[in-house]
C-alpha cells in the first residue's frame, strides 16, 4: 500500500524538482546577462583601437556560457559613458513550454578616452 502512495506522489515530487531546476536556470541566466552587460560596456569604454561599440558587442556576446546567447544593445548614456543592455533567453527545462521570458541587465561604464 505504501508503494502505491509513493507512486501517486512521484509526479508531484518530480514537478517540484523541475521547478527548482528551472528557477536555478533563471538565476544563472540573470547572472550571465549581468556579466555580458558589464563586459560589453567595459570593452566599449576602452580607447581606440581596442574599444568601441562593435568590440563591446563582441566581448559581451563572448562573455556568456557557450550554450547561452546574449543580445547586446546600446542605450542612451551621457557622452562620457557607454550603457550596454544584455538580454539572455532562458532555456526551458520542459521542451516546448516557455514559462519565463528573457532576462536583461544593464551596465554603464565611463569612457576612458575622455579628459
UniProtKB/TrEMBL annotation:
List the InterPro entries: TadE-like_dom (IPR012495)
Annotated TadE-like domain residues: 2-42
Q: Which organism is it from?
A: Actinacidiphila paucisporea
This chain's protein is named: TadE-like protein
Q: What is the lineage of its organism?
A: Bacteria, Bacillati, Actinomycetota, Actinomycetes, Kitasatosporales
Amino acid at each position: 500500500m505504501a508503494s502505491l502512495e509513493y507512486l501517486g506522489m512521484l509526479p508531484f515530487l518530480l514537478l517540484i524538482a523541475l521547478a527548482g531546476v528551472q528557477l536555478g536556470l533563471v538565476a544563472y541566466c540573470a547572472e550571465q546577462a549581468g556579466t555580458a552587460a558589464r563586459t560589453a560596456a567595459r570593452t566599449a569604454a576602452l580607447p581606440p583601437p581596442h574599444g568601441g561599440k562593435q568590440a563591446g558587442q563582441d566581448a559581451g556576446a563572448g562573455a556568456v556560457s557557450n550554450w547561452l546567447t546574449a543580445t547586446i544593445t546600446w542605450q542612451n548614456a551621457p557622452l562620457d559613458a557607454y550603457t550596454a543592455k544584455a538580454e539572455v533567453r532562458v532555456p526551458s527545462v520542459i521542451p516546448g513550454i516557455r514559462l519565463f521570458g528573457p532576462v536583461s541587465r544593464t551596465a554603464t561604464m565611463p569612457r576612458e578616452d575622455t579628459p
